[in-house]
Write a structure and sequence with these properties.
The structure is a single chain. By secondary structure, the chain is mainly alpha-helical. It has a single domain, classed as Orthogonal Bundle (Ribonuclease iii, N-terminal Endonuclease Domain, Chain A). About 65% of the residues lie in helices and about 0% in strands. It has 6 helices and no strands. Helix 1 packs antiparallel against helix 2, helix 3 crosses helix 5 and helix 4 packs across helix 5.
Length: about 130
């Protein structure tokens, strides 16, 4: 799989919040594809299952799970995303979860824009495998 829009993009030069902006959608697409390919379910059930995986608390848990799985560059992107100053206030969640989720989204955005789709799949598989 390649990027959908094949324009030159230097992901390393983008801000962590810009990476998270893209990564939010990339992560959501991975989740939706996983759920749809697992079973033919009613859309309401798909939405409920996706919401359970895409919320900030679940993403924060995934980000924490990755600590020993990522290489130095990937960990750096995750940390920059986590530490980015947002103008958003976390609703119905802790600030630390919100920031950790932003870090995960920044990582997904970085890897996608850098064309590292196979690595994205490895990371997604790692965080979604059963314990």
């Amino acid at each position: 799989m390649n990027r959908l829009f094949d324009k030159k993009c230097d992901a390393a030069q983008l801000s962590p919040l810009t990476l998270a902006f893209v990564g939010d959608t990339v992560f959501d697409l991975f989740v939706r594809e996983k759920l749809v390919c697992e079973a033919n379910r009613p859309v309401k059930k798909l939405h409920s299952l996706a919401s359970d995986m895409v919320n900030a608390a679940a993403q924060a848990q995934s980000a924490r799970k990755l600590a020993d799985f990522l290489n130095e560059k990937e960990l750096g992107v995750l940390k920059k995303g986590r530490n980015a100053h947002t103008n958003h206030k976390a609703k119905n969640m802790s600030g630390s979860d919100y920031h950790a989720a932003t870090g995960l989204e920044a990582l997904f955005g970085y890897l996608y824009l850098d064309g590292q789709i196979e690595r994205l799949q490895e990371i997604f598989d790692f965080i979604t495998k059963e314990k």
